[in-house]
């Protein structure tokens, strides 16, 4: 009896101590990670100290209910978690300027991903593929692909300023509930989203190709600025919010054969190789139509309602403005301007409509037409500076 009197409290204290190690944990050295290796489920956050140096192995852990976080750990070289399947909250890494490897072979679910300033990280060892995540933001890394990111749905998806990122194929992605934004990556970036059917806002800069064969509907903006692709095709797209094609120097063909509604403004300007605008099914534009450039032909014969203004100006036009003048009173509710042959085509606010024409700006937007969402702009100066500095380390 006396033995039980002492041993039982000791066992209870031991169990309490063990349980405590499976909660929030700060890792200053590998020994701290070894201390939680027996926790198949860690109920809390793992914070990797900025003072940690070398390789980190998170062995034994299968689930983290909280976050994995490291900010400023410039001497962390690689992180391995061979058994980890899910991170309940955030997977945030920032300023790990010597990180070369992330090996999470079983990881499939993450609350969110936010990686910034990881210039030495070139690839992901995510063999099972992350198929569930909320927001995903990957900026200023050395990644050459996103293999291992196999999302089915996503909220925010921002891929910015990854200058070695050459190709992205997210085959499983079907829906995005927030902004999809690609900007400031490798100039010849190829993007394939073969099964994406619906989304909200999608903006693209500095890409060489984009494939969205299944895209049917966007509730927000679809915009392209300064791209290198020759053709844009959305064979199943029926409706979108603001629609923008701006400063795409090689764009010669836009194919949206079943597009019927633009729920916002529709802006085409300074795409000097675009000779034909053929949108035979387009019926409704709730904002303004603002097209300027060097195109020959325009087919908008299906228009029945333009709630905003109408501006159509070209240097090379063989189209006749008579049709649009005839529907001006019944279809077009706002201001009207149509000129098939002008030496200096401009957007509705007087900015240059071609790269060769004179104008006061090279980033025009039209009143009532589509404008760039602030969230879709390239990475700000601080992050870009941080990235550039990190590459020198």
UniProtKB/TrEMBL annotation:
Transmembrane segments: none annotated. It comes from the Eukaryota. It holds the Pfam family Ecm33. It is found in: Cell envelope. The keyword Glycoprotein applies. The keyword Iron-sulfur does not apply. GO terms for cellular component: cell surface; fungal-type cell wall; plasma membrane. Keywords: Glycoprotein, Signal. InterPro entries: CWI-Assembly_Regulator, LRR_dom_sf. One of its GO terms (biological process) is fungal-type cell wall organization. Residues 342-366 are annotated as: Disordered. Residues 1-19 form the signal peptide. This is Protein ecm33. It comes from Penicillium daleae.
């Amino acid at each position: 009896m006396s033995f039980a009197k002492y041993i039982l409290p000791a066992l209870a204290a031991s169990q309490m101590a063990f349980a405590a190690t499976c909660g929030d944990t700060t890792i200053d050295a590998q020994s701290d990670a070894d201390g939680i290796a027996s926790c198949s489920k860690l109920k809390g956050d793992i914070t990797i100290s900025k003072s940690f140096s070398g390789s980190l192995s998170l062995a034994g852990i299968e689930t983290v209910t909280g976050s994995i976080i490291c900010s400023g750990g410039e001497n962390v070289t690689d992180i391995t978690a061979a058994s980890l399947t899910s991170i309940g909250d955030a997977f945030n890494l920032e300023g790990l300027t010597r990180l070369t490897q992330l090996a999470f072979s079983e990881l499939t679910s993450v609350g969110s991903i936010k990686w910034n300033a990881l210039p030495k990280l070139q690839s992901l060892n995510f063999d099972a593929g992350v198929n569930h995540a909320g927001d995903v933001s990957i900026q200023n890394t050395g990644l050459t692909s996103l293999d291992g990111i196999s999302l089915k749905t996503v909220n925010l998806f921002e891929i910015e300023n990854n200058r070695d990122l050459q190709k992205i194929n997210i085959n499983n992605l079907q829906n995005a509930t927030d902004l999809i934004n690609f900007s400031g990556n490798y100039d010849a970036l190829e993007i394939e989203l073969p099964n994406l059917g619906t989304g909200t806002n999608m903006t693209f800069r500095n890409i060489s190709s984009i494939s969205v064969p299944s895209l049917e509907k966007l509730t927000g903006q679809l915009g392209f600025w300064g791209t290198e692709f020759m053709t844009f095709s959305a064979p199943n797209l029926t409706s979108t919010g603001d629609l923008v094609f701006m400063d795409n120097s090689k764009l010669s063909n836009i194919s949206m054969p079943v597009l019927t509604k633009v729920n916002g403004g529709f802006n085409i300007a300074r795409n000097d190789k675009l000779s034909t605008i053929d949108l035979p099914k387009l019926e409704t534009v709730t904002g303004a139509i603002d097209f300027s450039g060097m195109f020959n032909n325009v087919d908008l014969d299906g228009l029945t309602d333009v709630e905003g203004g109408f501006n159509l100006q070209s240097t090379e036009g063989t189209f006749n403005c008579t049709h649009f003048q005839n529907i001006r009173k019944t279809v077009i509710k706002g201001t009207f301007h149509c000129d098939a042959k002008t030496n200096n085509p401009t957007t509705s606010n007087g900015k240059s409509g071609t790269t060769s024409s004179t104008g006061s700006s090279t980033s025009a937007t039209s009143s009532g037409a589509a404008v760039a969402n602030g969230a879709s702009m390239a990475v700000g100066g601080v992050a870009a500076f941080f990235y550039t500095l990190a590459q020198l380390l």
